Amino acid sequence: MALSAPPAIRRIEAFPIRLPRDLSRSLGAAGTPTSLGEAAGAYRWSAIYPALYSEHFETVLVRAELSDGAVGWGEAQAPLAPRVAATIIEDLLAPVLEGEPFDGRRETLEGLWQRMYQTMRVRGQTGGFMLDAISGVDLALWDLAGKMAGKPVAQLLAGAAARTHVSAYLSGLPGPDDAARLEAARRAPSTSFRLIKIFFDRGREEFLSFLDAVKAALPAAELAVDALWRLELPGDEAFLRTLERHSLRWLECPFPPDEIEPHRRLARHFSIPVALGESYRTVRELEVFFQELLIRYVQPDLGRCGITEGLRIAHAAAHAGVRVAPHISIALGPQIAAAIHFAAAVTDCEFCEYNPAVFEMSNRYLDRELPMRDGAYIVPDTPGLGVEIKLSDLMRDAEIMHP
Fold first, then answer.
1. Whole-angstrom distance, CA of residue 77 vs CA of residue 131
2. 264 CB-near residues (< 8 Å, 6+ apart)
3. Using one digit for the tens of pLDDT, what is the confidence trace for 219-233?
4. What is the per-residue pLDDT for 32?
5. Phi, then psi, of 194 in degrees rounded to 5
6. Which of 21, 64, 143, 254 is 20 to 30 A from 50 (CA-CA)?
């Protein structure tokens, strides 16, 4: 008997979304790690270092539909200017994918990723918004692949070796001032977080005093520091020696992502473990960090690299002896679910990032909430990513930022 032809990709849609949020609840955590300056528009500079943030919660949801009616959800990381990634999806990626057969095999997913990448590769668009857009579509296709196979994505990737729980680390201590943040730190043990990350969001001496206060409030917890790309070498040797003595789990994003030499100096002259990855979209961008052993942890963001390229990053990391800890910042359900499945399937992955305010926002628009218990994500056990968007609720609350 002849096998029936697989369904085809019928339609891919992008929804650039802006949701209101309470900045006071987000300040000091992933997504808004520092206080913001004044501005007339929605985007404001960090008051501490040259980076823009939005007053709102911005992202791009992606909906992929097959000719048999199956629907998959994805999401592109888009904390700023979500219309850019959405336009790339609708103008470039959807036209080259719609009509393509889709059988859900990994080889097919890799081929479709390459097809999307090649649309602009020769024109120099091999990172940034282009890869964010590709990643959003990639997640939607992996969601469909899991649904076609009747398996959660983690099991599709790792079979019986996929874990059912993924330890979370608390990303930031939110609050308008240090008293509120220390109170958040004191509450953290009740939720069983073994690792807490704090942001270098002030002057050096003031930050070291705050770090000491957090350690005193949480003597049993491990700490990590996100330096927000603010350090300099030469210049910060004494500050780094002090951080070294704090036995941090890692120092994250110490230098601007396009400056390699200070990362080399840090690796050669200091023992502090370095983590990075959220600013990079492909394994090609990370090759130098793996080849020269400049980092101990890599932090791929699934809304920027997708599952397909994320697996390549994880493979290169394993070859270099580097551990994996997925990054999650501003995200709704598809991004968070993808990170959880990815973390559950990757062998050298101990932690996945967690931000309570972001997680709460995500669950608000899901038919079935992503569960967390005792400081760990519970991996969704339904086919695909395990998330279905309550689109009517989202449309009610969000501004859909069509060009």
1. 10
2. 292, 294
3. 888 999 999 999 999
4. 83
5. -85, -20
6. 21
Q: pLDDT per residue over 47-100, tens digit each?
A: 998 899 999 999 999 999 999 999 999 999 999 999 999 999 999 999 999 999
| CATH numbers and ranges of domains, the chain | 9-150 (3.30.390.10), 157-387 (3.20.20.120)
* CA gap 160, 71 in Å, rounded: 26
Q: Closest Cα partner for 109 from 81, 70, 80, 148?
A: 148
How do strand 376-378 and strand 165-171 relate by DSSP bridges?
Answer: antiparallel
Confidence of residue 213 (pLDDT cuts 50, 70, 90): very high
For residue 395, report the phi and psi dihedrals to the nearest 5 degrees: -65, -30
Instruction: Flag whether pLDDT at 380 surpasses 70.
Output: yes
DSSP assignment of 216-282: HH-TTSEEEEE-TT---TTT-HHHHHHHHHTT-S-EE--S-TT--HHHHHHHHH----EEE-TT--S
61, two tokens = 């949801």
Alpha carbon separation from 240 to 204, 237, 278 (Å, rounded): 10, 5, 22
